[in-house]
Protein backbone atom coordinates (compact mmCIF):
# COMPACT_ATOMS: atom_id res chain seq x y z
CA UNK A 1 0.00 0.00 0.00
CA UNK A 2 1.04 3.60 -0.59
CA UNK A 3 1.99 5.76 2.36
CA UNK A 4 -0.48 8.64 2.49
CA UNK A 5 0.11 11.77 4.56
CA UNK A 6 -2.38 14.64 4.58
CA UNK A 7 -1.53 18.15 5.74
CA UNK A 8 -4.31 20.46 6.90
CA UNK A 9 -2.14 22.97 8.75
CA UNK A 10 -1.43 26.13 6.72
CA UNK A 11 -1.91 24.64 3.24
CA UNK A 12 -3.94 21.59 2.28
CA UNK A 13 -1.53 19.06 0.78
CA UNK A 14 -1.64 15.33 0.09
CA UNK A 15 1.62 13.37 0.01
CA UNK A 16 1.77 9.91 -1.61
CA UNK A 17 4.93 8.09 -0.59
CA UNK A 18 6.24 11.53 0.46
CA UNK A 19 5.66 12.91 -3.04
CA UNK A 20 3.39 15.94 -3.20
CA UNK A 21 0.15 15.30 -5.13
CA UNK A 22 -0.21 18.36 -7.34
CA UNK A 23 -3.43 17.77 -9.27
CA UNK A 24 -6.12 16.94 -6.71
CA UNK A 25 -7.16 20.55 -6.02
CA UNK A 26 -7.25 21.40 -9.73
CA UNK A 27 -9.44 18.39 -10.55
CA UNK A 28 -12.10 19.02 -7.90
CA UNK A 29 -11.98 22.06 -5.64
CA UNK A 30 -15.38 21.29 -4.15
CA UNK A 31 -14.29 17.69 -3.64
CA UNK A 32 -11.29 18.92 -1.68
CA UNK A 33 -13.59 21.05 0.49
CA UNK A 34 -15.72 17.95 1.12
CA UNK A 35 -12.61 16.00 2.20
CA UNK A 36 -11.54 18.78 4.54
CA UNK A 37 -14.99 19.18 6.07
CA UNK A 38 -15.34 15.46 6.75
CA UNK A 39 -11.86 15.22 8.30
CA UNK A 40 -12.53 18.18 10.58
CA UNK A 41 -15.53 16.30 11.95
CA UNK A 42 -13.26 13.60 13.37
CA UNK A 43 -14.88 10.68 11.60
CA UNK A 44 -18.36 11.53 12.87
CA UNK A 45 -21.17 11.12 10.30
CA UNK A 46 -22.09 14.48 8.75
CA UNK A 47 -25.73 14.68 7.56
CA UNK A 48 -26.24 15.45 3.89
CA UNK A 49 -28.20 18.62 4.63
CA UNK A 50 -25.21 20.04 6.54
CA UNK A 51 -22.86 19.24 3.68
CA UNK A 52 -25.20 20.88 1.20
CA UNK A 53 -25.64 23.97 3.37
CA UNK A 54 -21.88 24.29 3.85
CA UNK A 55 -20.49 23.50 0.41
CA UNK A 56 -23.25 24.92 -1.81
CA UNK A 57 -23.86 28.21 0.01
CA UNK A 58 -24.15 30.40 -3.09
CA UNK A 59 -25.39 27.90 -5.61
CA UNK A 60 -28.85 26.74 -6.48
CA UNK A 61 -29.57 23.17 -7.57
CA UNK A 62 -32.76 21.52 -8.72
CA UNK A 63 -31.60 18.23 -7.22
CA UNK A 64 -29.10 18.94 -4.42
CA UNK A 65 -29.02 15.35 -3.11
CA UNK A 66 -28.06 14.10 -6.54
CA UNK A 67 -25.39 16.83 -6.83
CA UNK A 68 -23.82 15.61 -3.59
CA UNK A 69 -23.86 11.96 -4.72
CA UNK A 70 -22.26 12.94 -8.02
CA UNK A 71 -19.56 14.91 -6.18
CA UNK A 72 -18.79 11.99 -3.86
CA UNK A 73 -18.65 9.52 -6.75
CA UNK A 74 -16.33 11.73 -8.78
CA UNK A 75 -14.10 12.45 -5.77
CA UNK A 76 -13.74 8.75 -4.95
CA UNK A 77 -12.70 8.08 -8.55
CA UNK A 78 -10.07 10.84 -8.43
CA UNK A 79 -8.69 9.59 -5.10
CA UNK A 80 -8.47 6.03 -6.41
CA UNK A 81 -6.49 7.31 -9.39
CA UNK A 82 -4.03 8.89 -6.97
CA UNK A 83 -3.69 5.77 -4.82
CA UNK A 84 -5.61 2.45 -4.79
CA UNK A 85 -8.42 2.35 -2.20
CA UNK A 86 -7.89 6.03 -1.32
CA UNK A 87 -11.52 6.67 -2.26
CA UNK A 88 -12.63 4.29 0.50
CA UNK A 89 -11.86 7.03 3.04
CA UNK A 90 -15.25 8.58 2.18
CA UNK A 91 -17.77 6.29 3.80
CA UNK A 92 -21.52 6.53 3.18
CA UNK A 93 -23.92 6.35 6.12
CA UNK A 94 -27.70 6.59 6.10
CA UNK A 95 -28.26 10.16 4.92
CA UNK A 96 -24.71 11.14 5.83
CA UNK A 97 -21.00 10.66 5.10
CA UNK A 98 -17.91 10.37 7.27
CA UNK A 99 -14.14 10.19 6.82
CA UNK A 100 -12.19 7.07 7.75
CA UNK A 101 -8.39 6.84 7.55
CA UNK A 102 -6.81 3.95 5.71
CA UNK A 103 -4.31 1.83 7.69
CA UNK A 104 -1.04 3.73 7.98
CA UNK A 105 -2.52 7.04 6.80
CA UNK A 106 -1.64 10.13 8.84
CA UNK A 107 -3.36 13.52 9.09
CA UNK A 108 -1.43 16.28 10.88
CA UNK A 109 -4.62 17.78 12.34
CA UNK A 110 -5.52 14.48 14.05
CA UNK A 111 -2.03 14.10 15.49
CA UNK A 112 -1.90 17.70 16.76
CA UNK A 113 -5.17 17.26 18.64
CA UNK A 114 -3.82 14.02 20.14
CA UNK A 115 -0.66 15.87 21.26
CA UNK A 116 -2.75 18.49 23.04
CA UNK A 117 -4.63 15.71 24.88
CA UNK A 118 -1.36 14.03 25.90
CA UNK A 119 0.22 17.29 27.07
CA UNK A 120 -2.82 18.08 29.19
CA UNK A 121 -2.00 15.11 31.43
CA UNK A 122 1.71 15.94 31.85
CA UNK A 123 3.22 18.25 34.45
CA UNK A 124 6.79 16.97 34.76
CA UNK A 125 9.88 17.82 32.72
CA UNK A 126 10.19 14.35 31.23
CA UNK A 127 11.86 13.68 27.86
CA UNK A 128 8.46 12.48 26.62
CA UNK A 129 6.90 15.89 27.29
CA UNK A 130 9.75 17.67 25.51
CA UNK A 131 9.42 15.28 22.57
CA UNK A 132 5.72 16.12 22.30
CA UNK A 133 6.44 19.86 22.24
CA UNK A 134 9.03 19.35 19.51
CA UNK A 135 6.64 17.21 17.47
CA UNK A 136 3.97 19.88 17.81
CA UNK A 137 6.36 22.59 16.58
CA UNK A 138 7.26 20.45 13.57
CA UNK A 139 3.64 19.68 12.64
CA UNK A 140 2.08 23.10 13.25
CA UNK A 141 3.27 24.81 10.07
CA UNK A 142 0.51 27.43 10.15
CA UNK A 143 -3.07 27.78 11.32
CA UNK A 144 -5.66 25.26 10.22
CA UNK A 145 -6.43 25.66 6.48
CA UNK A 146 -5.42 29.31 6.63
CA UNK A 147 -4.37 29.31 2.96
CA UNK A 148 -7.14 27.02 1.68
CA UNK A 149 -10.17 28.15 -0.29
CA UNK A 150 -13.73 28.09 1.06
CA UNK A 151 -12.54 27.62 4.63
CA UNK A 152 -14.92 29.93 6.51
CA UNK A 153 -16.46 26.93 8.20
CA UNK A 154 -13.00 26.05 9.61
CA UNK A 155 -12.42 29.40 11.34
CA UNK A 156 -13.83 28.42 14.74
CA UNK A 157 -11.69 25.28 14.91
CA UNK A 158 -8.69 27.18 13.57
CA UNK A 159 -9.02 29.79 16.32
CA UNK A 160 -9.37 27.17 19.05
CA UNK A 161 -6.38 25.24 17.72
CA UNK A 162 -4.30 28.42 17.48
CA UNK A 163 -5.01 29.29 21.12
CA UNK A 164 -4.05 25.79 22.26
CA UNK A 165 -0.86 25.99 20.22
CA UNK A 166 0.18 29.33 21.69
CA UNK A 167 -0.55 28.09 25.20
CA UNK A 168 1.62 25.02 24.57
CA UNK A 169 4.44 27.17 23.18
CA UNK A 170 4.35 29.43 26.26
CA UNK A 171 4.49 26.36 28.52
CA UNK A 172 7.44 24.96 26.58
CA UNK A 173 9.30 28.27 26.85
CA UNK A 174 8.75 28.33 30.63
CA UNK A 175 10.10 24.78 30.83
CA UNK A 176 13.20 25.81 28.84
CA UNK A 177 13.67 28.92 30.99
CA UNK A 178 13.67 26.77 34.12
CA UNK A 179 16.53 24.79 32.57
CA UNK A 180 18.37 27.99 31.43
CA UNK A 181 18.18 26.66 27.89
CA UNK A 182 18.18 30.02 26.12
CA UNK A 183 19.46 28.68 22.81
CA UNK A 184 16.39 26.48 22.43
CA UNK A 185 14.13 29.36 23.48
CA UNK A 186 15.48 31.35 20.52
CA UNK A 187 14.72 28.46 18.17
CA UNK A 188 11.24 27.81 19.60
CA UNK A 189 10.25 31.49 19.50
CA UNK A 190 11.33 31.84 15.89
CA UNK A 191 9.37 28.76 14.88
CA UNK A 192 6.26 30.01 16.71
CA UNK A 193 6.62 33.52 15.23
CA UNK A 194 6.30 31.94 11.79
CA UNK A 195 2.77 31.06 12.92
CA UNK A 196 1.91 34.30 14.77
CA UNK A 197 4.25 37.17 13.94
CA UNK A 198 2.24 39.71 15.98
CA UNK A 199 2.56 38.04 19.38
CA UNK A 200 4.33 40.50 21.69
CA UNK A 201 5.16 37.90 24.30
CA UNK A 202 6.99 35.72 21.76
CA UNK A 203 8.99 38.71 20.53
CA UNK A 204 9.99 39.67 24.07
CA UNK A 205 10.86 36.08 25.03
CA UNK A 206 13.01 35.89 21.89
CA UNK A 207 14.80 39.17 22.63
CA UNK A 208 15.39 38.14 26.25
CA UNK A 209 16.90 34.83 25.13
CA UNK A 210 19.10 36.65 22.60
CA UNK A 211 20.36 38.98 25.34
CA UNK A 212 21.01 35.99 27.61
CA UNK A 213 23.13 34.40 24.88
CA UNK A 214 25.11 37.63 24.33
CA UNK A 215 23.45 38.38 20.99
CA UNK A 216 22.38 41.93 21.78
CA UNK A 217 22.68 43.12 18.19
CA UNK A 218 20.24 40.42 17.09
CA UNK A 219 17.87 41.52 19.86
CA UNK A 220 18.04 45.09 18.55
CA UNK A 221 17.34 43.90 15.00
CA UNK A 222 14.34 41.97 16.35
CA UNK A 223 13.04 45.08 18.13
CA UNK A 224 13.26 47.11 14.92
CA UNK A 225 11.41 44.30 13.12
CA UNK A 226 8.60 44.44 15.72
CA UNK A 227 8.43 48.22 15.42
CA UNK A 228 8.13 47.95 11.64
CA UNK A 229 5.35 45.36 11.98
CA UNK A 230 3.38 47.64 14.27
CA UNK A 231 3.85 50.66 12.01
CA UNK A 232 3.19 48.86 8.74
CA UNK A 233 0.31 46.51 9.53
CA UNK A 234 -1.31 47.90 12.68
CA UNK A 235 -0.53 51.60 12.30
CA UNK A 236 0.40 51.92 15.99
CA UNK A 237 3.39 52.28 18.25
CA UNK A 238 4.73 49.12 19.91
CA UNK A 239 3.18 48.38 23.29
CA UNK A 240 4.44 50.11 26.44
CA UNK A 241 6.08 46.87 27.58
CA UNK A 242 7.85 46.56 24.23
CA UNK A 243 9.09 50.16 24.41
CA UNK A 244 10.44 49.55 27.90
CA UNK A 245 12.18 46.46 26.60
CA UNK A 246 14.13 48.59 24.16
CA UNK A 247 15.91 50.22 27.10
CA UNK A 248 16.90 46.78 28.41
CA UNK A 249 18.43 45.92 25.04
CA UNK A 250 20.43 49.15 25.02
CA UNK A 251 21.60 48.61 28.59
CA UNK A 252 22.58 45.02 27.83
CA UNK A 253 24.72 46.21 24.93
CA UNK A 254 26.80 48.49 27.12
CA UNK A 255 29.76 47.27 29.13
CA UNK A 256 29.84 49.03 32.49
CA UNK A 257 33.23 50.67 33.08
CA UNK A 258 34.08 52.76 36.13
CA UNK A 259 36.74 54.61 34.18
CA UNK A 260 36.40 58.36 33.88
CA UNK A 261 38.55 58.35 30.74
CA UNK A 262 36.45 55.62 29.08
CA UNK A 263 33.23 57.52 29.80
CA UNK A 264 34.76 60.77 28.52
CA UNK A 265 35.81 59.07 25.28
CA UNK A 266 32.35 57.55 24.84
CA UNK A 267 30.72 60.95 25.29
CA UNK A 268 33.18 62.56 22.89
CA UNK A 269 32.42 59.93 20.20
CA UNK A 270 28.67 60.53 20.59
CA UNK A 271 29.18 64.28 20.31
CA UNK A 272 30.98 63.93 16.98
CA UNK A 273 27.83 62.70 15.21
CA UNK A 274 26.42 65.28 12.82
CA UNK A 275 22.83 66.31 12.20
CA UNK A 276 19.71 65.74 14.26
CA UNK A 277 19.40 62.82 16.66
CA UNK A 278 17.23 59.94 15.40
CA UNK A 279 15.89 57.54 18.02
CA UNK A 280 13.23 54.97 18.82
CA UNK A 281 9.98 56.28 20.28
CA UNK A 282 10.82 54.93 23.75
CA UNK A 283 13.97 57.08 23.84
CA UNK A 284 12.10 60.04 22.30
CA UNK A 285 9.68 60.00 25.25
CA UNK A 286 12.58 60.01 27.72
CA UNK A 287 14.18 62.98 25.95
CA UNK A 288 10.82 64.76 25.94
CA UNK A 289 10.42 64.25 29.69
CA UNK A 290 13.96 65.48 30.36
CA UNK A 291 13.44 68.55 28.17
CA UNK A 292 10.14 69.35 29.87
CA UNK A 293 11.88 69.35 33.25
CA UNK A 294 14.45 71.77 31.88
CA UNK A 295 11.67 74.00 30.52
CA UNK A 296 10.02 74.05 33.95
CA UNK A 297 13.32 74.98 35.59
CA UNK A 298 14.33 77.62 33.06
CA UNK A 299 10.87 78.92 32.16
CA UNK A 300 11.56 78.53 28.44
CA UNK A 301 9.66 76.94 25.53
CA UNK A 302 10.32 74.02 23.21
CA UNK A 303 8.46 73.29 19.98
CA UNK A 304 7.00 70.00 18.81
CA UNK A 305 6.82 69.39 15.08
CA UNK A 306 4.77 66.73 13.32
CA UNK A 307 5.28 65.78 9.67
CA UNK A 308 2.89 63.54 7.73
CA UNK A 309 4.12 62.21 4.40
CA UNK A 310 1.53 60.75 2.04
CA UNK A 311 -2.02 59.73 2.74
CA UNK A 312 -2.43 56.65 5.00
CA UNK A 313 -5.73 55.84 3.26
CA UNK A 314 -4.24 55.96 -0.25
CA UNK A 315 -4.64 52.44 -1.76
CA UNK A 316 -2.08 53.20 -4.50
CA UNK A 317 0.76 53.63 -1.97
CA UNK A 318 2.33 50.18 -1.67
CA UNK A 319 4.50 49.31 1.32
CA UNK A 320 7.82 49.32 -0.56
CA UNK A 321 7.18 52.76 -2.07
CA UNK A 322 6.08 54.13 1.31
CA UNK A 323 9.16 52.74 3.06
CA UNK A 324 11.46 54.28 0.45
CA UNK A 325 9.80 57.69 0.74
CA UNK A 326 9.83 57.64 4.55
CA UNK A 327 13.52 56.64 4.57
CA UNK A 328 14.29 59.44 2.11
CA UNK A 329 12.40 61.94 4.25
CA UNK A 330 14.28 60.78 7.35
CA UNK A 331 17.60 61.44 5.60
CA UNK A 332 16.44 64.97 4.72
CA UNK A 333 15.45 65.62 8.34
CA UNK A 334 18.61 64.14 9.82
CA UNK A 335 20.91 66.12 7.53
CA UNK A 336 19.08 69.46 7.67
CA UNK A 337 17.99 69.81 11.28
CA UNK A 338 20.38 70.85 14.03
CA UNK A 339 22.31 68.61 16.41
CA UNK A 340 20.05 69.55 19.31
CA UNK A 341 16.89 68.42 17.48
CA UNK A 342 15.37 64.96 18.00
CA UNK A 343 13.46 62.83 15.46
CA UNK A 344 11.38 59.70 15.88
CA UNK A 345 9.25 57.61 13.52
CA UNK A 346 5.87 57.95 15.22
CA UNK A 347 3.67 55.94 12.81
CA UNK A 348 3.89 54.56 9.26
CA UNK A 349 3.52 58.03 7.71
CA UNK A 350 4.37 60.40 10.58
CA UNK A 351 7.59 61.79 12.08
CA UNK A 352 7.64 63.66 15.40
CA UNK A 353 10.32 66.28 16.10
CA UNK A 354 11.54 68.06 19.23
CA UNK A 355 12.92 71.51 18.37
CA UNK A 356 14.27 73.07 21.57
CA UNK A 357 15.66 76.41 20.29
CA UNK A 358 13.11 77.76 17.80
CA UNK A 359 10.11 80.07 17.86
CA UNK A 360 7.05 80.11 15.60
CA UNK A 361 8.84 82.05 12.88
CA UNK A 362 12.06 80.06 12.77
CA UNK A 363 10.17 76.79 13.33
CA UNK A 364 7.98 77.36 10.31
CA UNK A 365 11.03 78.39 8.30
CA UNK A 366 12.68 75.09 9.21
CA UNK A 367 9.59 73.10 8.19
CA UNK A 368 9.23 75.00 4.90
CA UNK A 369 12.87 74.33 4.08
CA UNK A 370 12.39 70.61 4.75
CA UNK A 371 9.26 70.64 2.59
CA UNK A 372 11.16 72.27 -0.30
CA UNK A 373 13.93 69.69 0.00
CA UNK A 374 11.34 66.92 -0.01
CA UNK A 375 9.78 68.07 -3.29
CA UNK A 376 13.25 68.62 -4.73
CA UNK A 377 14.04 64.99 -3.94
CA UNK A 378 10.64 63.78 -5.27
CA UNK A 379 9.87 66.39 -7.97
CA UNK A 380 7.34 64.44 -10.01
CA UNK A 381 5.42 62.88 -7.16
CA UNK A 382 1.94 63.83 -6.07
CA UNK A 383 2.66 62.77 -2.48
CA UNK A 384 1.30 65.28 0.05
CA UNK A 385 3.74 66.67 2.61
CA UNK A 386 1.95 68.24 5.60
CA UNK A 387 3.33 69.57 8.85
CA UNK A 388 2.25 71.24 12.05
CA UNK A 389 4.35 72.94 14.69
CA UNK A 390 3.43 74.17 18.15
CA UNK A 391 4.97 75.06 21.51
CA UNK A 392 5.38 72.84 24.56
CA UNK A 393 5.12 75.34 27.40
CA UNK A 394 6.86 75.00 30.76
CA UNK A 395 3.56 74.51 32.60
CA UNK A 396 2.88 71.21 30.78
CA UNK A 397 3.47 68.24 33.04
CA UNK A 398 5.90 65.59 31.76
CA UNK A 399 4.77 62.00 31.57
CA UNK A 400 5.45 59.84 34.56
Give a quick summary of the entry.
The chain has 400 residues and is of the alpha+beta class. It is built from 15 helices and 12 strands. Strands 8-10-11-9-12 form a 5-stranded mixed sheet, sandwiched between helices.
Question: What does this protein look like?
Answer:
Helix content is 54%, strand content 13%. By secondary structure, it is an alpha+beta fold. It folds into 3 domains: 4-105, Winged helix-like DNA-binding domain superfamily/Winged helix DNA-binding domain (Arc Repressor Mutant, subunit A), CATH 1.10.10; 108-252, Tetratricopeptide repeat domain (Serine Threonine Protein Phosphatase 5, Tetratricopeptide repeat); 274-392, Alpha-Beta Plaits. Helix 9 (200-212) runs antiparallel to helix 10 (216-234) and helix 10 (216-234) runs antiparallel to helix 11. It starts with a strand and ends in an 8-residue tail after the last strand. The model is unreliable at 255-260 and 396-400 (pLDDT under 50).
The major pleated sheet works out as: 5 strands, mixed
Could you tell me the mean pLDDT? 83
Number of domains: 3
Radius of gyration: 29 Å
CATH superfamily membership of the largest domain, which one? Tetratricopeptide repeat domain
Identify the strand order in the major beta sheet.
8-10-11-9-12
Q: Which architecture of the largest domain does the CATH hierarchy give at level 2?
A: Alpha Horseshoe
Question: Given the structure, what is the number of helices?
Answer: 15
CATH topology of the largest domain: Serine Threonine Protein Phosphatase 5, Tetratricopeptide repeat
The sequence of SSEs as H and E is: EEEHHEHHEEEHHHHHHHHEHEHEEHE
Termini Cα gap: 69 Å
Strand content: 5-15%
**Coarse morphology:** elongated
Helix content: 40-55%
Which class best fits the helix and strand makeup?
alpha+beta
Amino acid sequence: MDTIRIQLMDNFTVYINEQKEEHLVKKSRKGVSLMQYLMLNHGQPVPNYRLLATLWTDEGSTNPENALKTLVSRLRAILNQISPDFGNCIVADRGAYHWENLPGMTVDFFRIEAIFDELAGMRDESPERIALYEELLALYKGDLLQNAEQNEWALAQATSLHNKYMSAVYSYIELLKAADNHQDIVRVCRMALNVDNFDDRLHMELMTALINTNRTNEALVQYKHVTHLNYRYLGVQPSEDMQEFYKQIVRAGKTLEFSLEAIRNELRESGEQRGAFVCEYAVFKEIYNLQMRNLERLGSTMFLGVIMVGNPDDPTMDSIKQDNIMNGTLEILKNNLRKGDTITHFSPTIFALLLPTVNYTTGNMVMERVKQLFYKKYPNSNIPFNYRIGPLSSDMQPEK
